Fold Calcineurin-like phosphoesterase domain-containing protein.
Amino acid sequence: MPSKSMKTTTAAAAVLALGLLASQPAIAANNTADSASSNEAFTFGVIGDIPYGAAEIAKFPSRIQDINADSALKFVTHVGDIKNGSSVCSDEYFANIRSQFDTFEHPLVFTPGDNEWVDCHRTNNGAYNPLERLDKLREVFFDEPGKTLGATMPVKTQETLGLPENVRFTQNRVAFSVVNVQGSNNSLLPWSGLGETAPTPEQLAEVEHRTDAVLDQIRETFSDAERRNDRAVVLMTQADMFDPSLLAAATANPDAVSGFREIVAAIIEETNRVDRPVYLINGDSHVFAENQPLAEGSPWLEVYGQPAADDLQRITVDGSANATNYVRFTVAGNSSDGDDVLSWEKVPFSQ
């Protein structure tokens, strides 16, 4: 499939916005404003797997300022991993990143990554209990459930289920759903840093509860999108459930990705059920990619034992040493339907 990465200029967006405004009856100023905000094209930014290591930590304030300078962004999403996999998961580090997140001038949606809780059992990470670290992340980054970090934007959450990080919202007839799905086989790998050789009962209970909540949110997102006649669905996760570097191992042993199986099945079922494009944005594997991992003929279909879902488009954002840019997504104006609701381009950081 050819790339959908397209350059949408500010001028074009302005012309579109003016045209839409001109077509609305001048009933009342507030009605016109509401109509314009729901009909105009808009952009949002996505980053992930950043900052990694001392050099990138030092650059992170500048990275945030570059994103802040993109004043047209409606919101920004960080798809997890606020540290590398070999550094300590300390309270002090979490507090430092939260203070940096507070400098975002756009609404910031954050979903935790495996480096900041799942893998914190590692000796060089501090040999923490990962579930304790997950609780701390929720305390530090999700202290006001239903509100984004940075500038405030209301979101629906699964706070009542104990997962305030799972959020969803709608912009311009596009349904967004951000869910806590983790690398490291969705947190099923043993906590070897704590001496474990198999998943513990408490670990399995957390995975089951979180996965059930994720499945519920995915299904609710699609159902609500269908009811509202939304134009597209955008899912965001930390985990790359189609990481090309894991394909050989997963082909030889599908249990290597067993933690993703139910989630992939739900995404396929819902994508095939609704007649609209679906986009999956993730981090985790650190290398920008744009593809259809569940299209007919994909080897991942055999790994997961599922039918094809040709309408699913996946975008992986750069991370780690490749995190030298953010991805700017453009949502077309409300009059645009079909496969080109979203377009995207990488925007380099200034340093």
In short: Residues 1-37 have pLDDT under 50 and may be disordered. Residues 43 and 330 are 4 Å apart (CA to CA). The longest strand covers residues 163-171.
